[in-house]
Amino acid sequence: MIAPIIAFFNNKGGVGKTSLVYHLAWMYFDLGLRVVAADLDPQANLTAAFLDEDRLEAVWEETSIDRYNTVFKCINPLLNGIGDIATPELEQIEDGLNLLIGDLRLSEFEDELSSQWSDCLDRKERAFQVVSAFGKVLQQAALSSNADIVLVDLGPNLGAINKSALIASDYVIVPLSLDIFSLQGLKSIGQTLRQWREEWQKRIPKNPSAHLAIPQGQMQAIGYTIFQHGVRFDRPVKAFQRWIELIPKIYNSEVIQQDGIGSNLSSDLNCLAILKDYQSLMSMALESHKPIFHLKPADGAIGAHVYAAKAVYKDFKELAQKIADRTGVIVPLQSLAEPTLQKESPSPLN
């Protein structure tokens, strides 16, 4: 069984998308699953979360033709017309946790992918090869690492890179923040997903080669998460509350088109998690290249930070289990116990 590919997509930035993918990747690894975290965002923020600057420089400057350890290097031979995609050489973060490294040069493929999308209607085999490239890379990454789950981080836009990545995805999760921009973006997300899905379904029968495996474009939306930033004093409380109330209504009507289901946040089954503002813990995690729930006193997690990190672990474990339930991923029973965290005497959070 090929691991499910789960994309995290929002055309608005600043919603905690990369942090969400990063922490879920570590959580699934902690729970005993084999994970591929795939960075298909040309900004490569997920890659920067996993790797330090020295490693990034070494990887991005590597020019040997037999090294295909970034997504750019994997698809470059195909897009240059000198062969098919190359099997990715994944970055092993831990035994069972692997990274498909992002690349700033990925943005160079935007125009090419856009033109090839149109050429699929003319039954051009190369067009299908190019548009399906991300799907092939992700599947090969999953197979080569014997992954149980593939988590894909995408950039905040509606461009051709995201379109090609999403048609390769089995499931889609929409990260949101509590602001008016997320609400407006949520409306366009639903329309965009439906449009891309319908366009791809029209192209599938035009595949000229029976031997060319192409993605099915399932792109099933399975829920949303909310990153709850602190309430800003310049935002009226009533407006803030109104955004909270509108999110489930807009998601259900615009994304999955099921009016009347989950009329409020507390009863909406599509709300996978409301994640808190983790304050200074997030900056500690980014600096240490660790998830929050792996922080130790040496990283600065002392006193009340220890208890906060344990709460973060619980939040992400519950979220990981919900996603697993909706995607058919089996989490080992022995992994459900809480970790033992080193205790420190309480001190105020920063």
Jot down its keywords.
disordered C terminus, 8-stranded mixed sheet, Rossmann fold, 350 residues, 12 helices
Brief summary:
The protein is an alpha/beta fold. The chain has helices spanning 17-30, 45-50, 53-61, 71-79, 110-119, 125-131, 133-144, 160-167, 180-203, 237-255, 280-288, 304-327; strands at 5-8, 35-39, 91-94, 97-100, 149-153, 171-177, 220-228, 271-276. Strand 6 (171-177), helix 9 (180-203) and strand 7 form a beta-alpha-beta unit.
Summarize the SSE layout with pairings:
Layout: E1 5-8, H1 17-30, E2 35-39, H2 45-50, H3 53-61, H4 71-79, E3 91-94, E4 97-100, H5 110-119, H6 125-131, H7 133-144, E5 149-153, H8 160-167, E6 171-177, H9 180-203, E7 220-228, H10 237-255, E8 271-276, H11 280-288, H12 304-327
Parallel strand pairs: 1-5, 1-6, 2-4, 2-5, 6-7, 7-8
Antiparallel strand pairs: 3-4
Provide structural commentary:
It is a single chain. This protein is α/β, with parallel strands linked by helices and 350 residues long. It has one domain: P-loop containing nucleotide triphosphate hydrolases (Rossmann fold). Helices cover 43% and strands 13% of the residues. It is built from twelve helices and eight strands. The chain has helices at residues 17-30, 45-50, 53-61, 71-79, 110-119, 125-131, 133-144, 160-167, 180-203, 237-255, 280-288, 304-327; strands at 5-8, 35-39, 91-94, 97-100, 149-153, 171-177, 220-228, 271-276. Strands 3-4-2-5-1-6-7-8 form an eight-stranded mixed β-sheet, with helices on both faces. Helix 9 (180-203) links the parallel strand 6 (171-177) and strand 7 (220-228). Helix 1 crosses helix 12. It is globular, with a radius of gyration of 20 Å. Residues 340-350 have low confidence and may be disordered.
